[in-house]
Design a protein that fits this description.
about 240 residues, 4-stranded mixed sheet, 2 domains, globular
Length: about 240
């Protein structure tokens, strides 16, 4: 995957026209007709860089305090692949360095610094809380359990392999909602300590579709996430 550095955005915005088009994957709330930007303006790029400069050091301090021994050197990048929806995600590179990636439409669509800071704090919290390795462990446990049960019952190798795949998927999703709420809570703290308003930042959830309370869904209902932010913020 190819990523753009944060400061590479400055060159991009100077040579790419801002495009306004219909919603990509996260429609605006009902009752609004404001067109959705897919390429950030210069002001939005400046906003993004400003938030990065304030949130990253705070996230690094929280990481070192809460997860000693873990790689806390966050690299914040821009996913500039065409056609991407508004999104932010956390991953690791081959050396184990934590990557916080933001797509151009997300940078263009957040309404203020508080929302951007909260999204950034939330993604950093996933790494600090060790959610990637924990998810991998859950997937492995699910694969072993369901695959083992299939083997015990005399299933064919093909069916055992399918059971392993299904078990891994179920295991990976089993605690996904809890992971998101954990990241919302710690993200609230990071956002607050970086000097932003996490409650205002969590209003970003009102812009995206509500996943509802689905069995084995990956994200909890938006109302539950907003309530988590408010509860944690009230104690700060």
């Amino acid at each position: 995957m190819r990523w753009m550095s944060v400061f590479g955005l400055l060159a991009l915005v100077g040579c790419v026209e801002v495009v306004e088009q219909g919603p990509v994957s996260r429609p605006a709330p009902q009752g609004t007709s404001r067109p959705v930007a897919t390429t950030p303006t210069r002001a939005q790029v400046d906003q993004f860089i400003s938030v990065v400069q304030r949130v990253e050091p705070v996230a690094e301090r929280e990481c070192r305090a809460r997860a000693p021994g873990q790689n806390c050197d966050f690299r914040i990048v821009v996913d500039d692949r065409p056609g991407q929806p508004p999104n932010a995600y956390q991953t690791l590179d081959k050396s184990g360095q934590p990557i916080l990636a933001f797509t151009l439409p997300l940078i263009a669509q957040v309404r203020n610094r508080d929302e951007l800071a909260f999204v950034m704090g939330h993604e950093a919290a996933h790494h600090i809380s060790g959610h990637i390795p924990r998810q991998q462990q859950n997937a492995a446990a699910g694969a072993i359990l369901l695959g083992g049960l299939a083997a015990i019952t005399g299933a064919s190798q093909t069916m055992v392999d399918q059971a392993v795949d299904i078990g891994a998927g179920v295991g990976a999703r089993s605690y996904s909602k809890n992971f998101e709420l954990e990241a919302d809570g710690l993200g609230t703290i990071i956002t607050h300590r970086a000097g932003y308003n996490p409650v205002k930042g969590a209003e970003y959830f009102t812009q995206i579709p509500d996943p509802g309370n689905r069995f084995l869904g990956t994200h909890p209902p938006n109302a539950q996430r907003i309530e988590t932010v408010r509860r944690v913020a009230a104690g700060l």
